């Protein structure tokens, strides 16, 4: 049995809880939730129902945790082969695969129930589709068979934005799909930067990540191209959709400029793991701050300040024109 030679026994209940908590890969989930929150705030025009927000984020957390748990079950063989992941709960023997599967099913059921009862059926079904896409399409069909795994699989990570929008409105719109597209386009630069850092691990277990198949230079070039597509896409929320305002635009411009610079530096030195790490870490900060910008821009107070500034500016311009 995989990991039998390093099997560990839990000494107390807290260690059991911690092992199951680790199955969910908790460091990944907050990034998914912030895209959900950003989408919800825009959909609600800055007036999100606190109860709905909590329910949607909790439901999204359980859905993401279920997907990650099944991923741990499916990838237990390559996790055991890589030193970086060998001590995860399943390959280390601390959690059995069938117990993890029961845990994942319970998480998915709780997620669906919460979203269906307290939000709406569309949000619940979208959350379940995210689990199915991540497990069946990305983990099973794509991850071990094509270097484009992250490109196509990025849709799974973008679905939480749709869940957030659907939870508020009960439908989907062009704005929701645009936020989905932003996350989708962001995923390849984000994940390929990580893949450049740990290329040897993927090569060791035969996972055809782009750096393994095509090399560092091609990967850095693809990161650059996707970045150039991503940044203009973020401004579609301003025009033509008019879902966000100038504050969001200023934030997107500043963040995007830094992203472009880091992607360019990596392209100039594709074998530099320091540059890859810098881009990877910044990409996380980028998405968090971009979504925070969506939230702040949507607030009624922000609109009031913007309208007051616009009114003052018009008054000043009118005064200058009259004086002439």
TrEMBL record:
Broad EC category: transferase
Pfam family, one: UbiA
GO CC, alphabetical: plasma membrane
Listed CDD domains: PT_UbiA_Cox10
Catalytic activity: heme b + (2E,6E)-farnesyl diphosphate + H2O = Fe(II)-heme o + diphosphate
Pathway named in the protein's UniProt entry: Porphyrin-containing compound metabolism; heme O biosynthesis; heme O from protoheme: step 1/1
InterPro entries listed in its UniProt record: Protohaem_IX_farnesylTrfase (IPR006369), UbiA_prenyltransferase (IPR000537), UbiA_prenylTrfase_CS (IPR030470), UbiA_sf (IPR044878)
Family under the similarity heading: Belongs to the UbiA prenyltransferase family. Protoheme IX farnesyltransferase subfamily.
Transmembrane portions of the chain: 28-46, 52-74, 95-115, 121-138, 150-168, 174-198, 223-241, 247-267, 279-299, 305-323
Comment field (misc): Carbon 2 of the heme B porphyrin ring is defined according to the Fischer nomenclature.
GO molecular function (one): protoheme IX farnesyltransferase activity
Top-level taxonomic group: Bacteria
Keywords from the UniProt entry: Cell membrane, Heme biosynthesis, Membrane, Transferase, Transmembrane, Transmembrane helix
Principal location listed in the UniProt entry: membrane
EC annotation from Swiss-Prot or TrEMBL: 2.5.1.141
Function: Converts heme B (protoheme IX) to heme O by substitution of the vinyl group on carbon 2 of heme B porphyrin ring with a hydroxyethyl farnesyl side group.
UniProt-recorded name of the protein: Protoheme IX farnesyltransferase
UniProt-annotated location(s): Cell membrane
A Gene Ontology BP annotation from the UniProt entry: heme O biosynthetic process
Membrane topology: Multi-pass membrane protein
Origin organism lineage: Bacteria, Bacillati, Cyanobacteriota, Cyanophyceae, Chroococcidiopsidales
Organism of origin: Chroococcidiopsis thermalis (strain PCC 7203)
């Amino acid at each position: 049995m995989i990991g039998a030679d390093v099997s560990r026994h839990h000494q107390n209940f807290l260690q059991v809880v911690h092992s199951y908590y680790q199955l969910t890969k908790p460091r990944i989930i907050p990034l998914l939730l912030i895209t959900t929150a950003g989408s919800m705030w825009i959909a609600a025009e800055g007036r999100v129902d606190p109860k709905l927000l909590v329910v949607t984020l909790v439901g999204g957390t359980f859905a993401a945790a279920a997907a990650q748990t099944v991923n741990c079950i499916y990838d237990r063989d390559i996790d055991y082969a890589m030193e970086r992941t060998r001590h995860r709960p399943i390959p280390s023997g601390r959690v059995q695969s069938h117990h993890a599967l029961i845990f994942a099913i319970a998480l998915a059921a709780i997620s669906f129930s919460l979203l269906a009862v307290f939000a709406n059926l569309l949000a619940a079904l979208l959350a379940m589709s995210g689990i199915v896409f991540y497990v069946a399409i990305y983990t099973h069909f794509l991850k071990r068979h094509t270097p484009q795994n992250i490109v196509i699989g990025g849709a799974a990570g973008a679905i939480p934005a749709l869940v957030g929008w659907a939870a508020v409105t009960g439908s989907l719109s062009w704005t929701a799909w645009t936020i989905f597209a932003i996350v989708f386009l962001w995923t390849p630069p984000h994940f390929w930067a990580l893949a450049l850092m740990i290329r040897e691990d993927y090569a060791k277990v035969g996972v055809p990540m782009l750096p393994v198949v095509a090399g560092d230079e091609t990967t850095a070039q693809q990161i650059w191209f996707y970045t150039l597509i991503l940044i203009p896409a973020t401004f579609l929320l301003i025009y033509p959709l008019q879902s966000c305002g100038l504050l969001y635009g200023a934030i997107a411009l500043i963040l995007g400029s830094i992203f472009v610079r880091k992607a360019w530096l990596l392209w100039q030195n594709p074998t530099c793991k320091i540059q890859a790490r810098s881009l990877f870490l910044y990409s996380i900060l980028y998405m968090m701050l971009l979504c925070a910008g969506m939230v702040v821009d949507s607030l009624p107070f922000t609109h009031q300040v913007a309208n007051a500034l616009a009114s003052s500016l018009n008054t000043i311009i009118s005064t200058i024109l009259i004086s002439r």
